[in-house]
Amino acid sequence: MVSTLDAQGPAGLDRPGRRRGGHSRRLLTGWQRARYDGLILLWVLATAYFWTWWLDPQSILPGMRYWVVTVAFGWLFFMQAYFIFVFRAAVVPAGPLPDPAETRVAMIVTKTPSEPFDVVRRTLEAMLRQSYPHDTWLADEDPQPETVAWCAAHGVQISSRKGQDAYHRSEWPRRTRCKEGNLAYFYDKVGYARYDIVSQLDADHVPQPGYLDEIVRGFADPRVGYVSAPSICANNAEESWAARTRLHTEAGFHGIFQAGYAGLLAPMCIGSHYAVRTSALRQVGGLGPELAEDHSTTVLMNAGGWRGVHAMHAIAVGDGPANIGDLCTQEFQWSRSLLTILLRYTKDYFAALPPRLKFQFVFCQSWYPLFAVFMLVLYLIPILAVIFDMRYAAVTYPDFLLHAIWPPAVLTAIAFLIRHDGHFRPTDAKVLGWEKAVFLALQWPWVLWGCVMAARDRFTGHFVDFRITPKGAAAEAKLPLRVLAPYLVLALGCIVPVLLVDHVIEAKGFYFLTLLNGSIYAAIAAVIVVRHVRDNRMKTLSALKAIPVQVLSIPILLALVVHALVLRGPESLLALSVGIGQDQMVRYEYVVSGAGLGEAGTVRYRWDPDFLKSLFTSEKE
């Protein structure tokens, strides 16, 4: 089923993306905006400094290798530029609150059988405390007697599709085991008829005081069909390092970047909580398909001519992944679902979108496969250099660092300024931190696998059943080998070539860079195992009995890293240090032929024990 959309948009209203005065205001103004513009100018100059140097004909080596690396670098710079271009256009709702006497509002929270009522009750209690007049609803897949009794005592109404076969279809719309089907029943039975605005929340996302005021403020503009809000999964951040990895990494997206989308393109509904104008939702055919119904609903709304705004100050706080297994499952499912939307559904709505939104939605739906492919390329670059003894450009490593370090350094300064000005969500998210540093390396293997499975699903017609991430007491502490295995394989994929490939001439420096990559994945594997043991208060013997392969793999992996560093580190660092100066960390000697010494003329590399001593001596002098 595909809804037919009017390419001209809602009657009498502009196409999405054009703003009217009075309903929104710029987030960055005056001196604050000038500070950002100054840093952006520095970023532009730093970027020009790098690319002018990198594209110098003297740096280019023959063949495709130089251009493969150039495209990979281009992707990194494009993502930086995209972030800057979007966030600078940030706007926030500034209209008056709609008159409660004329605007019928509902808040609804969804619940699956696997989600404990204790989790949902906290959310319902916070919904009931909202000051803006509204009805409170629970969309429960299988309401239990105690749930029904509590809701009756507190004035909460229940919507349930249990036993309604028409709302348990195997395909969208009204799909079974999917939030879209659960909410579709509510909208069809009461939502469209009784309410003008509906705010949807996941079971664990607790709205803070004033939340609903900020949500409905966005609908003061009659062109607005949906309001997005920051997805802050911080309830369990203290105890879950997996939750912190994503929380800190995505703080800019849920804050100023989404506000930039509202000013320039289209903000993205995030499934944990967003709100819709029911007349707009009915016009476009209801909530969108797939696990990523938030994204597909955003597409449907904009293709139908409605626009969205981002309510930065509508704060609801939910649970992040309880453990690394849940994080990996989420990344796999989200990437699979978003690419499925591109491969299966986007073509039906593409023509109705204006050009800038055509670009935005195709780019967003392609982002996961692009991200995974470029991460794979960046992973393989040093490994292939070692295996095939090749360089990618006629440059030295110190010179590369001198030119490449400034754009990310300026971008980091911009991030610190955004945090200082309170435009992160959450506002206290870290700019730098070990959890944030490992997130992309944690994420991409599962994103790659999710994209592969989405392609397979599309061409085989395979049905995908989604797994609900456990919340609250339902979350389990497990560490299956399949969760750890990708990082063990990625670490070994770097370490083994360093150990086995001898007589490298052109790419000696890549020994160390490859080993550095391997060390990152080895460290990730170690953190996963150590934190699992520590967080679950397991003793060493208990851990060895419960997860023997996982535990024993870590010391073996770390021993291989150390062995590879001792074996290849000296010659690799010597090669990387060309152009730095005379003082060397490495001593090299030409071997004279003799028993056990190798062939005459062989060069032996050793760590120079006098390096630090001479360094400190020279400082004193």
From TrEMBL:
Region feature Disordered, mapped onto this chain: 1-22
A Pfam family that the UniProt record links to this protein: Glyco_trans_2_3
Record GO terms (molecular function): hexosyltransferase activity
Protein name in the entry: Cellulose synthase (UDP-forming)
Localization (cell): Membrane
Domain of life (superkingdom): Bacteria
UniProt key word Cell membrane: no
Organism, scientific name: Roseivivax lentus
Transmembrane segments: 34-54, 66-87, 367-388, 400-418, 484-505, 511-530, 542-566
